[in-house]
Amino acid sequence: MEKKVHNKLVRDYFPELMKEKGREIEFEVLDSKQFSEKLMEKFNDEVEKFRHAGTDRLLSETVDLLEVIYAIAEHRGITESEVEFMRQLKKNRSGGFRKKSC
């Protein structure tokens, strides 16, 4: 059987889920620099998936993109709480995008 090489960042439980399904997989734990690079690759991949998502996939792709954003922030020392606090602060100060102004 030919081995597939994906070489992409996966969610934390993915290796265990694949093993439960009887799939033999290999993975590595990345160092900090590699992790940063793979996070940015994953961010770009998720942005593209979000951009092309149909109505049926929009919520799922939004959540995936948000999860990657939180991971990038955490990797750089920013908590989810800090992200949400700043988001609310900026929204309260400057508003959101509901008025659709350009």
Kindly describe this structure.
The protein has 102 residues and is mainly α. Helices cover 60% and strands 0% of the residues. The chain contains 4 helices and no strands. The protein has helices at residues 14-20, 32-52, 58-75, 80-94. Helix 2 (32-52) runs antiparallel to helix 3 (58-75). The N and C termini lie far apart (54 Å).
Q: What is the first-to-last residue Cα distance?
A: 54 Å
Structural class: mainly alpha
Total count of helical runs of at least 4 residues: 4
Shape summary: globular
Q: Can you count the beta strands?
A: 0
- The low-confidence runs, each spanning 5 or more residues with pLDDT under 50, are none
What portion of the residues fall into strands of 2 or more residues?
under 5%
Radius of gyration: 17 Å
Per-chain topology:
Blueprint: H1 14-20, H2 32-52, H3 58-75, H4 80-94
Helix pairs in contact: 2-3
Which features characterize this protein?
single chain, 102 residues, mainly alpha, 0% strand
In short:
The chain has 102 residues and is mainly α. It has helices spanning 14-20, 32-52, 58-75, 80-94.
